[in-house]
Each structure stands twice: as C-alpha cells, then as structure tokens.
Design goal:
Elements: E1 7-11, H1 15-27, E2 34-39, E3 43-45, H2 50-55, E4 64-66, E5 76-80, E6 83-87, E7 92-95, E8 98-101, E9 104-107, E10 112-113, H3 121-124, H4 131-150, E11 160-164, H5 168-187, E12 196-200, H6 212-224, E13 227-230, E14 235-238, E15 242-247, E16 251-256, E17 259-262, E18 266-267, H7 270-275, E19 284-285, E20 291-292, E21 295-300, E22 305-306, E23 308-309, E24 314-315, H8 320-338, E25 353-357, E26 363-367, E27 370-373, H9 374-401
Parallel strand pairs: 1-2, 1-9, 2-5, 9-21, 11-12, 11-17, 12-13, 19-22
Antiparallel strand pairs: 3-4, 6-7, 7-8, 10-18, 14-15, 15-16, 20-21, 23-24, 25-26, 26-27
Helix pairs in contact: 1-8, 1-9
The protein binds flavin-adenine dinucleotide and nicotinamide-adenine-dinucleotide.
Nicotinamide-adenine-dinucleotide binds at residues 118, 164-170, 172, 200-203, 208, 234-235, 263-266, 317-319, 354-356.
Length: 407
C-alpha cells in the first residue's frame, strides 16, 4: 500500500512565506511532501524598503527579486496567481486561475492598509503597500514637480505633501522624502521654500511608545530638513484637494495638499476575513504553535497573525522580524506533522531591537537595549536589511541585493 504524500500549500512569498518554504525545501525530500508556493507576482519585494522606492530614493527593481532566486523548483511547485478565497471545510484555496487543494495550509499573505473607515482615504490617498503602490506614489510626486514647473498659474498646494501617521512607516518615508525633495527642486528649477511637508499624527507624540530621547532626535533631524509636525491632530477625511483634520473638540480644518500619503496603520489580509476563519481586523489570534484555532491544518503567520505579548498583555506589533521567526517555527512544525509527530513547537519571539531610518544616512534605534542615533544607527539598519536577505537567500542574495553603501 502506498501512503499519500501530504501537500503543503504556502500562500504569499513575503518574509514569512519565503522563510517557511526555504526551510521546508531543505528539511523535506520530494518523497516526503509536495510543497506548493502561491504568490501574486513572480517576485518577492522587501516590504521594509518600500518607503525608499515610494520616495524615489531607490529604484523599485532594487527592492525586489525573483522568487526563483531562492526556491528550488525541483522541490517546490510555484503558482503565480492571486488568492481569492480559502475554503477550510473543503481544504482548498480559490485562485484567480483555478483552485488548489491542500493537506496543510500556511497563510502568509501580509497586511493591508487600515483606513478605519475614514472618508475619502481610499479614493484620494496613496499608501506604501507594495511595488505597484510605491511606483505610483514616486511617479505622482515627480509629476507634481514637473507640472508645477510648467503651469502658468502656479498651484502652490501642488508642492504640499501630507503624511498621515507618525508611526515607523510615516517617519521612514518622511526621511526619504526630505532627502528627495531638494533633488527634485534642483531638477525642476523650483525654489525649495515653495515646498511644504506636513506630518499629521493623531497621538500626542511622534512614534508613540518609542524611546522619547530618540524621538526628540528624529523630530529635530526631520524639522531641520523642513518637515512640519502636527501632532495630536487626527485626520478625519481626505478629498481631492487635501485632508480634513480635527481642530479642538468640535471643529475641523482643511489642509490643501497635492499629495496625501496614508501611513497610519495596517490590518491583516482581507482574504482571512472572507475565509470565515475567526479573526480580529483580519488577523488570526493563533495558538502557541501558530495554528488557527479550530483548524489543525492551517498555520497563519506574519501580518495575518496576532500574537500577544504576555508581559504587557497587548499584541506584538506586526514586523518582518517576527514574520521570519514565525516562518522558521512553522517549517519545523510542518516537518514534525509530516513525520507523524503530534507534539508541536511553541512560538516565542526573540526581539533584537528596532531601528527606524531617517533617510539613507541617519536613523534612530534600540538594539539589544542599546540606544543608537546617526550613522551608527543607519549602519545597523543596513545590516538588518542585509540579514533579512541572508535569512532567505543566503550570501549570494546578499551579494546581489545587499546594501553596501554603509557609511
Ligand atoms: P509580506 O512580507 O508583506 O508578504 C506578503 C506576500 O503575499 C507578498 O509577496 C504579496 O504579494 C503576497 N500576497 C498578498 N496578497 C496576495 C493574494 N491575494 N494572492 C497572492 N499573493 C498575495 N518590519 C520590521 O521588522 N523592520 C522594519 O524595518 C520594517 N520596515 C517597514 C517599512 C515599511 C515601509 C513597511 C510598510 C513595513 C515595515 N515593516 C518592518 C513591517 C514588515 O514589512 C511587515 O511586518 C512584514 O512585511 C510582514 O511579513 P509577511 O510575511 O506577513 O508579509
Ligand atoms: P503604526 O500603527 O505603527 O503607526 C500608525 C500611526 O498612525 C500611529 O502613530 C497612529 O497614532 C497614527 N494614526 C492612526 N490614525 C490616525 C489618524 N486618523 N490621523 C493621524 N494619525 C493617525 O503603523 P505603521 O507605521 O504603518 O507600522 C506598521 C507596522 O510595521 C508596525 O508594526 C511597525 O512596527 C512596523 N514597521 C516597522 C518599521 C521598523 O522597524 N523600522 C518600519 C515601518 C513599519
């Protein structure tokens, strides 16, 4: 009697999905399991570098690489398709190109921008979510400068940029934008003083919850480059002309801007909500072994998962750091299941720190409990970026895509 090989289907070739697949292809032989990877594109992109592609300080081709560069096609079947739904009862996934069934499923579809139902954002604001959104935002920024230079009746608001949210994404994008704007001014013969860059944050501080001394440094550095902060100012809406913000208790104010970037939070994938798997804002509060409650054949990781930091009884912020560590645990747990073991490993994040870039040559961070600013922090950020490449594609990927403009 022949025993049927289990089919493992991994959805998403981001940080979590690729770490899972690269570990599985090493640990399992073709006789032990069929491994299938499904992704919308035939490339992986470094989500953590998208602020650079969005501002135009890095070409979008630098932030992506072919999935084929890291998967072993003799062991992994790659399906380029868009996931449309998951049917847990039927153990199958609906794709735009057909269907795929599974014995074990790994959901690593990443996150989506969270607009909290704020009116006009979907229609009028840009987001920093993937290669396509980044390319569009970069082109739009350049279009504003080119159009301003050409139009007879100058629209000053064309050169006003609003970034909604002073979380890590907002601040990292502002760092890049503040470096890009002087280049654009020079290229299009525009006086730098015409440009306004606002950062609008609802909370009473920039980077809420981060080290106040480092935040002070970041704000001062960005202000020096012309960024104006409006903190304690929730965005209430977006229009074709700009944004509406709360002013005091009952009033609102309009800020006219040709470019609005919404960087005020992420949620899980809408596919999770559609699938009927229990979730909170499209994130699955996973069991300690990273399986979805009630679904022993479905693992969920990265931005689609929710795990609680017991020390403060609050969810861990979704990060690439955690997604990659989860990928390693998911792969080990799948190997156990394939080999017939039932005791699975429990996931515990090992956080090494957080570094927030402020452009190519500056950053702030806490690494192994040590505070860093300036070039030291910037060096560390590049090392972290290179480490992510190393974890998925080894030294050859670091050589091909790594950041070596270190100082
Ligand atoms: P992702 O890496 O986002 O991958 C999801 C994959 O699924 C993508 O390949 C996508 O194309 C694919 N996909 C999505 N939907 C579908 C579908 N329907 N069908 C098929 N394929 C689909 N975290 C850090 O730890 N450090 C940082 O420095 C850092 N910097 C960041 C900077 C920016 C600008 C942003 C936006 C985020 C940053 N983060 C950082 C957060 C980090 O990027 C995310 O937490 C991480 O990418 C989540 O990994 P993931 O594997 O869940 O999803
Ligand atoms: P976030 O949730 O961390 O920050 C969003 C910010 O937007 C918050 O400060 C919030 O107060 C603000 N906000 C929410 N509603 C608003 C409104 N109506 N008006 C104005 N401001 C509003 O989101 P993010 O910055 O996109 O980060 C997403 C995840 O990615 C986080 O887990 C973060 O840690 C991670 N990330 C990490 C890095 C890094 O480590 N360098 C960089 C980018 C993102």
């Amino acid at each position: 009697m022949t025993v049927k090989k289990p089919k493992i289907v991994v959805l998403g070739a981001g940080y979590g999905g690729l770490v899972t697949v690269t570990r599985l292809q090493k640990a399992l032989s073709v006789d032990e399991a069929n491994i299938v990877l499904v992704n919308k594109n035939d490339y992986h992109y470094e989500t953590t570098w998208l602020h650079e592609a969005s501002a135009g300080t890095m070409h979008h081709d630098r932030v992506r690489y072919d999935v084929d560069a890291v998967i072993n096609r003799s062991k992994v079947e790659f399906i380029r398709a868009e996931v449309q739904d998951i049917k847990p009862e039927e153990k199958k996934v609906i794709l735009n190109t057909g269907e795929v069934d599974y014995d074990y499923l790994v959901v690593a579809l990443g996150g989506e921008s969270e607009t909290f139902g704020i009116e006009g954002l979907k229609e009028h604001a840009f987001t920093i979510s993937n290669v396509n959104t980044s390319r569009q935002l970069r082109d739009h920024i350049e279009f504003q400068f080119a159009t301003y230079a050409n139009e007879e009746e100058k629209k000053e608001e064309r050169l006003t940029f609003v970034v909604g949210g002073a979380g890590f994404t907002g601040i990292e994008f502002l760092g890049e934008l503040a470096n890009r704007v002087p280049e654009l001014c020079k290229e299009y013969d525009i006086d730098y003083s015409k440009v306004r860059i606002y950062c609008v944050e609802a909370a009473p501080m920039v980077l809420p919850g981060f080290d106040p001394e480092l935040v002070k440094y970041a704000v001062a550095q960005l202000e020096k480059k012309g960024v104006e902060f409006k903190i304690g100012t929730p965005i209430k809406g977006a229009t074709a002309e700009g944004i509406i913000v709360a002013k005091g208790e009952d009033e609102t104010e309009e800020i006219k801007a040709g470019t609005v970037v919404w960087a005020a939070g992420v949620r899980g994938s809408s596919i999770i909500e559609k699938s009927g798997i229990e979730n909170m804002r499209a994130r699955v509060k996973v069991n300690p072994d990273l399986r979805a409650p009630g679904h022993d054949d479905i693992f969920v990781l990265g931005d689609c998962s929710l795990i609680i930091n017991e020390e403060i009884n609050r969810p861990y912020p979704p990060t690439a750091q955690i997604a990659m560590q989860q990928g390693e645990t998911v792969a080990r747990n799948l190997v156990k299941l394939v080999k017939g073991e039932t005791e699975l490993e429990t996931f515990t994040p090992h956080l090494k720190g957080t570094v927030c870039s402020l452009g190519d040559d500056d950053a702030i961070g806490v690494v192994f409990d040590k505070k860093l600013t300036g070039t030291k922090a910037s060096f560390m950020k590049k090392m972290i970026d290179n480490r992510a490449l190393f974890m998925i594609g080894g030294p050859s990927l670091v050589l091909k895509k790594g950041k070596f403009n270190i100082l």
